[in-house]
Amino acid sequence: MSTDKPAEQDAQAEPGPQSVTGPRINKGLVIVNTGKGKGKTTAAMGVVVRAWGRGMKVIMLQFIKHSTANFGEQRAAQKMGIEMRAMGDGFTWRSKDLDQSAELARAHWEDCKTIIASGDYDVIVLDEFTYPMHYGWVDTEEVIEALKARPDMVHVIITGRNAPEALVEYADLVTEMNVVKHPYQEGIKAQPGIEF
Ligand code: ATP
Ligand code: MG
């Protein structure tokens, strides 16, 4: 666990809006970044870097993304000594072998459960994890049970479109990214450093 000084002792810490009266509690959060707009994974990376900056133990577990992918965030993580594991098969909606994608996602989820329960990490990102739930490969209720059973101060961030309603209900912080414009619609290629 982290040895850096906690946020409440940091003169620069922003307490945020105080809409609730009475004592405020300290707890690990379940955070969901969902919606059709760009920025879900990027926002999770932002938190990873922020927590890493505080000396917290962080890990990013990527579903869907191929284990041989070498995206900018994976290169950054390697340089920074942040653990990042891509364990997908590059699944797309056009993926031919859905049974294999499902099997891989289930196996990956089993590893994630062990990591979540271990208490070895302060922040755990399950990137693109909404898809295995949305497609019914991983049972959403089982995920919620695993989140409920996790050690108190563990933060878990789940990204991806179509977050299941039950997960949204259970989560502490849910942000929905909306598309206003995307360069893809203008025929602009994915730009390195921005998209991957
Ligand atoms: P990012 O990883 O850039 O934060 P994201 O996690 O929000 O994006 P995903 O749903 O994981 O987005 O989609 C992955 C890729 O698809 C990204 O390269 C992103 O730019 C692209 N994308 C996201 N939204 C749209 C959209 N509305 N139209 C076209 N491409 C999109
Ligand atoms: Mg993403």
Fold and architecture overview:
- Helices cover 33% and strands 18% of the residues.
- The chain is of the alpha/beta class.
- It has one domain: P-loop containing nucleotide triphosphate hydrolases (Rossmann fold).
- The chain has a six-stranded parallel beta sheet, sandwiched between helices.
- Helix 2 links the parallel strand 2 (58-66) and strand 3 (83-88).
- The protein binds adenosine-5'-triphosphate (ATP) and magnesium ion.
- Magnesium ion binds at residues 40-41, 128, 159.
- Residues 36-42, 128, 159, 161, 177, 179, 182, 184, 190, 195 line the site of adenosine-5'-triphosphate.
Secondary structure: elements and pairs:
Layout: E1 30-35, H1 40-53, E2 58-66, H2 72-80, E3 83-88, H3 98-118, E4 123-127, H4 130-134, H5 140-148, E5 155-159, H6 165-170, E6 173-177
Parallel strand pairs: 1-5, 1-6, 2-3, 2-4, 4-5
Adenosine-5'-triphosphate binds next to helix 1.
The average pLDDT value, as a whole number, equals 89
Helix content: 25-40%
Q: Which fold name is given in CATH as the topology?
A: Rossmann fold
Shape: globular
What ligand species are in this complex? adenosine-5'-triphosphate, magnesium ion
Order of helices and strands: EHEHEHEHHEHE
The chain-level structural class is alpha/beta
Query: Looking at this structure, what is the CATH superfamily?
Result: P-loop containing nucleotide triphosphate hydrolases
**Uncertain parts:** none
CATH class type: Alpha Beta
